Protein: Alanine glycine permease
Organism: Polaribacter glomeratus
Amino acid sequence: MKKKFLSLLLLAIPMLSFAQEKGLDEQVNDAFMPFATWWENLVLTTVPIAGYNIPFVVLLLVSGATFFTIYFKFPGFTKFKTAINTVRGKYVDIEKHGVDKLYNNDEALAVEDIADTIRDESAHGEVSHFQALATAVSGTVGLGNIAGVAVAIGLGGPGATFWMVVCGLLGMSTKFVECTLGVKYRDVGEDGTIYGGPMYYLSKGFKEIGFGAAGKVLGVIFAILCVGASFGGGNAFQSNQAAVQISSLFNLQGGSNGVIIGVILAILVGIVIIGGIKRIAKITEKIVPFMAGLYIVASLIIILANFSDIGFAFQLIKDGAFSPMAGLGGLVGVLIVGFQRAAFSNEAGAGSAAIAHSAVRTKYPASEGVVALLEPFIDTVVICTMTALVIIFFNINGTDAQSVFNYTAAHGSSVILNSTGETINGVDLTSMAFDSVIPHFSYVLTVAIVLFAFSTMISWSYYGLQSWKYLFGKGKAADITYKILFLIFVVIGAAATLDAVIKFSDAMILALVFPNMIGLLFLFPKVRQEMKRYLGAITMKKEAIQDGAIDVTKHM
């Protein structure tokens, strides 16, 4: 442990010395921008439909999520209560032992084990349902909810919020499918370490249905892209906005502040990620409830303080969602902005969260699938909506409502301070919006932002590391190589501009959709089988309780 920490310090020394050079942040950004722009253009390739150029990846996300929502009969609503009960541990006994063993019924719900993988699923798993959810939520509930919403409103106006919520509701179904598959097709190492995620269900699942070669190719593609996404959206974007907020709050001047802040963040992240998923889970299960609670309470204070404007705010969201706005290509433009920002925020369809959920202790893969559908709800439907309302209130404060609507319809933006004419975007806009109602809250928000960024980075380091090991093996050399590269990107993100980082981050997250959604569209029948097993096990437990076969006080 000490040797590894010393290596991180040695890595930081040359970065700190370079930080003394004038304009290092600009040099890093200049080198990074061309690649970020090229990659964004490639991933967001458009297809012409009804006169609009729509990114193909957005079409794939929307169509896939809609199909899963209908096929599984709106699981985000019908399985919501089951998800809450599962997180609470209500069914932990059957998840650990299996309903057939508990109630001596070998014929019911026979387990379909995968050859050469988890033979006794009840004996495997590294984290609880809540820890898995906290780890995955920490990877999604992050600066996409703070800065990302501001970017969405800046590009698409208040109407983008509506489409973010729609994407979040549809994304609940996609998350349910991919995380169920993540547990079903996971691998267990000799030491009990779990290895899971889309690269495993692509390779194993496709082999099961007779497309083994295609599955291997898709698994490798996903792993490569996931490593890149861990460097981008799960890392560089987070450190960038944390550095921006810290610099803005303390009025730090100069061209090297980003690098210095990035090095400090890199050291802190490095201390945690050395410990693997168990340490990450222990950290996130403490940080996530605290930071989410802090942010939600602050948002509610502002919403209640502007209670009289809530109706108008929702009117702006509704009208903006369906009304043409300048420079956006009308309705489709707002829709694309909303869906793209929501996809970056909750990552439903990207498959990344399935890596964290794969490590859960359970015998029923669908148990973690229903837990996972809570993520887009928490992330996009609740927190993103609250952020959007706070920003909208900030912009309509002291201004005639009709004037705000007319300006928004004409310019497609609600992020211009009417008193000064100054354009604000990203995390600075969110910070100013909170500060306008809760004086000096920017200091508290800075803490929240740093925690958001920190927790997201440590979660994504695990996602990227799992993908790295899938590509290069599970030895210690591969482990330390990835972690050093990851920490370097913490510094790069802090030094680059928001525009460059968003281009790279968006594209890397969205690129994961291509191989992952192909896998989901081929393997979704397996999810239906697993859901039937899990719901059947729950029903059998309830019947056993009713018949007096088990003590209701111990199992309810």
Notes: The chain has a mean pLDDT of 75. The chain has one domain: 2-72+81-555. The chain has 26 helices and four strands. The first strand starts at residue 46 and ends at 49.
